[in-house]
Design brief:
The complex is a heterodimer of chains A (236) and B (378).
Chain A: E1 7-18, E2 25-36, E3 40-44, H1 51-58, E4 66-71, E5 74-78, H2 86-93, E6 94-97, H3 109-119, H4 124-137, H5 153-165, E7 171-175, H6 183-199, E8 203-207, E9 219-224, E10 227-229
Helix pairs in contact in A: 3-4, 3-5, 5-6
Chain B: H1 3-10, H2 12-48, E1 54-58, E2 71-72, H3 75-80, E3 85-100, E4 103-112, E5 125-126, E6 135-139, E7 149-152, E8 155-163, E9 174-178, H4 179-187, H5 191-199, E10 210-211, E11 213-218, H6 224-232, E12 237-241, H7 242-253, H8 255-285, H9 288-296, H10 301-330, H11 342-369, H12 373-376
Classes of the chains: A alpha/beta (236), B alpha+beta (378).
């Protein structure tokens, strides 16, 4: 059913090697992964299995050694990056949610969200209004003027989600988004992410170790020694 | 949204403390510039004070400031008669230490002929010298007031007037007396020495009618070089124009002090540059995770560079402003004159601007090298 929808992330034959000779480490081996619009998938696996490396490649942050990356229908990597301005690509198409929210400590909640909108060229007043709208939607609008240091873990992660979704990206990459939250808040945050992604026709790819939220994902992929497998232990 | 301003506001206390430290450094730099200017100004004050065009001195010397010069007292009449000279006056200079109010007072005593060039131009308080003997006009920095009496040599002088900002290149305040009194002061021995001289049959030494220089004002149509050339025809006399005298003072008398201060100023500016660079670098290194996040969410390099350069400029600007205010508030308490011209402050602002931009280069380099993957970790 999912394959009938538009693929937002398509990676094929992705390998990533660090070092050379005896010191060579194969972080990823011939990884294929396709995530469609509305898809919410988890990357599971022990530390060092290559989850974050895969997330970084999808996020156009590090170069794969070989393979092909297509994002939102656009081929962006094939032996080399085909887009010169990868930061602009990230700004337009990708939203990031981090384990420890990574809000800028010198901006209040509203400005942290408005920043990505102004970077994308939205007028300041419009950016501020959209930021407040998003924060209200995520039920953290009452804390819009609070600095990140004064926000609780759950509040800060909601602000981070608002920031990730502010530019209506098609692809949301999350690195342990609920690791700093208790199980109740983790469930709430995941539900919010799912809801917003569905509304924006986006997909979510999350790295997680948090078993409590496995049921919030459509599909679970396991990375073992750089090899990606689906729930049945098969290559996807 | 100005990220540099927001970051400064967020860490305001630390920023202000850093600026305060930098402003003290700027104040020292400005003080050094002011002391240098004061040195030059003081040196030129003395040579400019008589407002003359020509200095007639002992042949082969660059007197009376750079070298000792002694010429016969009668030279003034001969110079005054030269074609093109409108007025001439004899003058002597000597440094003496007197006692006043229980403290030692260093004075630069200028002996001049009342009615001729060489005396104080503007009396700030009291009057000029009207008597032939034992009257004195002093610079305010002496601490003397009109009506005070001051012992110089074996005589007591009445302070009848005060002038302002007349000091020698060493910063000693001036005291004007009549030429006759100055010559007496120069040749007079202390009573015991006088008695020894008398016992030896050497006679008194106070009769020597010599002066340090004769200064002359010229007719508006006269060429100073021509008149100087005429004076030089007398083999025992030399002549310097006002411009030459000023050049000698700057190039010779205050040259070593000027170079010393210049070198110190260079070191201070280098230290300031290193301090600014270190501060900016440290501030940037503390923000590497935030910079990585900015890169990850799509902020262009110019946003990150602006964050660092603007903070660097703010640091330099505030440091310069506080430093300027500080030095303007305390400059009058320095033992030597501190002269600050607007152009000095503007020049330092320009230097600080360049230093800040160059210094922020180190931070910018570190920031641009940050891998956005750092924000994700792993």
């Amino acid at each position: 059913m999912e394959s009938a929808r538009q693929a937002l992330v398509e990676i094929a034959g992705i390998s990533k090697q660090y070092g050379e000779g005896d010191a060579r480490v194969d972080a990823l081996r011939d990884v294929d992964l396709t995530v469609h619009r509305g898809g919410v998938v988890a990357l599971l696996g022990p530390s060092g299995s290559g989850k974050t490396t895969l997330l970084n490649i999808i996020g156009c942050i590090i170069d794969p050694t070989e393979g092909r990356v297509r994002l939102d229908g656009e081929l962006v990597y094939e032996n080399r990056w085909l887009r010169r301005d990868l930061r602009k690509l990230r700004l337009d198409k990708i939203g990031f949610i981090f384990q420890f929210h990574n809000l800028l400590p010198f901006l209040n909640a509203r400005d942290n969200v408005a920043l990505v909108l102004t970077l994308a060229g939205r007028p300041p007043a419009e950016a501020q209004a959209r930021a407040v709208e998003l924060l209200d939607y995520l039920e953290v609008g009452h804390r819009k003027d609070a600095m990140p240091a004064l926000l609780s873990g759950g509040e800060a992660q909601r602000v981070a989600i608002a920031r990730a979704l502010a530019n209506s990206p098609r692809i949301i990459l999350a690195d342990e988004p609920t690791a700093a939250l208790d199980s109740k808040r983790a469930g709430i945050v995941m539900d919010l992410m799912r809801k917003l992604a569905a509304e924006q026709d986006a997909c979510i790819i999350a790295v997680t170790h948090d078993e409590k939220i496995y049921d919030r994902f459509d599909r679970l992929f396991h990375l073992r020694d750089g090899v990606l497998e689906n729930e049945n232990g098969e290559k996807p | 949204m100005n990220l540099a301003y927001r970051d400064v506001r967020h860490n305001l206390f630390r920023f202000v403390l850093t600026c305060l430290g930098l402003s003290l450094l700027m104040a020292v730099v400005l003080a050094m510039i002011g002391i240098y200017n004061g040195l030059v100004s003081d040196a030129l004050n003395i040579v400019n004070a008589p407002r003359v065009d020509l200095w007639v001195v002992e042949s082969g010397t660059q007197g009376p400031f750079a070298e000792a010069s002694k010429i016969p007292g009668g030279t003034r009449d001969a110079v005054a008669r030269l074609h093109g000279v409108s007025d001439a006056g004899s003058i002597t200079y000597q440094t003496v230490e007197a006692s006043h109010a229980g403290a030692t007072l260093r004075l630069y005593v200028i002996g001049f002929e009342p009615g001729h060039p060489g005396g104080p131009q503007t009396i700030a308080e009291g009057r000029g010298i009207t008597q032939s003997h034992f009257e004195l006009v002093a610079d305010r920095k002496t601490g003397l007031v009109v009506g005070d009496r001051l012992g110089l040599g074996r005589d007591s002088f009445a302070v009848v007037g005060l002038v302002e900002d007349v000091t020698n290149s060493g910063g000693d305040p001036a005291a004007f007396v009549t030429l006759a009194d100055a010559q007496t002061l120069q040749s007079q021995l202390a009573p015991p020495a006088q008695r020894v001289q008398a016992a030896r049959g050497a006679g008194l030494l106070e009769s020597a009618d010599t002066v340090a220089a004769v200064i002359a004002r010229l007719e508006p149509t006269a060429d100073p070089q021509d008149v100087a050339q005429t004076v030089r025809q007398w083999k025992h006399l030399g002549a310097l124009t006002q411009a030459e005298q000023e050049a000698i003072l700057i190039g010779s008398v205050v040259d070593r002090a000027k170079r010393q201060i210049g070198l110190f100023l260079g070191i201070l500016l280098s230290v300031s540059a290193v301090v600014i660079a270190l501060i900016i670098y440290t501030m940037t290194m503390e923000k590497l995770k935030q910079i990585a996040t900015l890169k990850l969410i799509g902020a262009p390099d110019r946003t990150i560079v602006a964050l660092i350069v603007q903070q660097s400029l703010a640091l330099g600007g505030v440091g310069w402003s506080f430093g300027l205010i500080l030095i303007l508030l305390i400059k009058d308490y320095f033992p030597r004159r501190v002269v600050l011209e607007p152009v000095n402050a503007a020049a330092l602002a320009g230097i600080i601007l360049v230093v800040c931009i160059v210094a922020s280069g180190l931070g910018v380099r570190a920031a641009l090298k940050v891998d956005p993957a750092t924000a994700i970790g792993g």
